[in-house]
Amino acid sequence: MAELGVNIDHVATVRQARGTNEPDPVWAATLAQLGGADGITVHLREDRRHIQDRDLRVLRDTVTVKLNLELAANPEIVEIACGSKPDQATLVPEKREEVTTEGGLDLLTHQQRVADAVARLRDAGIGISLFLDPDPRQIEAAHALKADAVELHTGEYALAVGEKATQAELAKLVDAGKQVRSLGMTLHAGHGLTYRNVKPVAAIEGMAELNIGHSIVARAIMVGFEQAVREMKRLVS
Ligand code: PXP
Question: What's this model's pTM, rounded to 2 decimal places?
């Protein structure tokens, strides 16, 4: 049964739009936990466009489920991660101009940078997940880096149009999932998952964790955070 990590970045996005102190992502994290979240996920971006350093500190003090920090393999952010000690660090690619994370990490091109970040985070006792496209070469490289987990990028699956294309993308995730597990790593997935498309991904054998943000925050505006999380939790488990 997959666990649900709730990404609360976009609560902070609304706050930052006005530069005030509401809505507070810390409050959202509490409601998410009451709704059954197994984890809280935040992305501390280099440009601090949503989550702030203060959010990470307060979340570390208050979140009682797994705290998963998404971050780029940037030495400054890696140091903040080591100091704040999330339960898990998920390394993601990051481009300043992107609206959201656009693809998986390219471990073949950025091997040394990622290896340095992995070593530093591991020394700090933090579990390591790598956000990757469902590409066999990338998964091999994650194994070589001794990652604890791989989070498969589900963006292409989410964007696929029509049954045939959707099934083709799902098949890639299923195959990649088998490879991740056969190499002894834990299987996670996320990006672009919604109330409508999540079930087949949650049903992939051995799926341990799904990280979902935008769809839950969007629904929370209409029905409340706790209920939005409860509804998603029902679908993933
Ligand atoms: N997983 C990772 C690694 C991400 O970067 C994101 C987006 O921050 C998510 C999951 C959640 O994506 P979404 O907001 O589309 O659910």
Answer: 0.97
Structure tokens that stand for 236 in this block = 């993933």
Residue 61: CA count within 13 A, CB half-sphere: 7
Cβ–Cβ under 8 Å, residues 67 and 60 = yes
43, 50, 153, 188: the active-site residue: 43
- For atom 5 of ligand 1, the residue with the nearest CA is 101
Is 70 a catalytic site residue? yes
Give the max Cα distance, the chain: 47
The structure tokens listed for 28 are: 């959202």
Which residues, 6 or more positions from 195, have their beta carbon under 8 angstroms from its beta carbon? 215, 219, 231, 232, 235
Could you tell me which of 46, 45, 52, 42 has the C-alpha nearest to residue 15?
Answer: 52
Q: Which domains does the chain have, with CATH numbers?
A: 3-236 (3.20.20.70)
For residues 42 and 51, the answer to whether their CB atoms sit within 8 Å is yes
Q: What is the mean pLDDT of each run of 10 residues along the chain (237 residues)?
A: 97 98 98 98 96 98 98 96 97 75 87 95 98 97 97 98 98 98 98 98 98 98 98 96
Instruction: List the one residue out of 182, 227, 186 whose CA is nearest residue 210.
Output: 186
Q: Is the CB of 92 under 6 A from ligand 1?
A: yes
Parallel, antiparallel or unpaired: strands 66-71 and 39-43 = parallel
Active site residue 43: yes
By C-alpha distance, which of 162, 170, 86, 96 is closest to 134?
170
